[in-house]
Amino acid sequence: MASLLEQALATIVSTFQEYSQLSGNPLCQAKFKELLEKELPTWTPTTLRECEYKQFISVLDTNKDCEVDFVEYMRLLACLCVYCHESFKDSPLKPSCPQ
């Protein structure tokens, strides 16, 4: 049975592939916006204003091809992970460790 981390990695890859129609191609901006709204609803405002989205995508789209490739997608997820880590590292709730 796959570990939680292995399952998470598989989910990250399969989610990108689902939106790129399993081709491994970059996501067009419309597909990427759909991915954000459906797969990260807690992190995406329900009404993502077009000007905010364009500003966000301009930072994320490092090669300026108006698409989001897998590496750019991973940068977004890595930044979200760092943000979560920083936000929760001083939380009073600590994960329990097996003895």
UniProtKB/TrEMBL annotation:
The keyword Oxidoreductase does not apply. It comes from the Eukaryota. The keyword Repeat applies. Coiled coil: none annotated. Residues 52-83 form the EF-hand domain. Pfam families: S_100 (PF01023). Keywords: Calcium, Metal-binding, Repeat. GO terms for molecular function: calcium ion binding; calcium-dependent protein binding; transition metal ion binding. This is EF-hand domain-containing protein. It comes from Muntiacus reevesi (Reeves' muntjac).
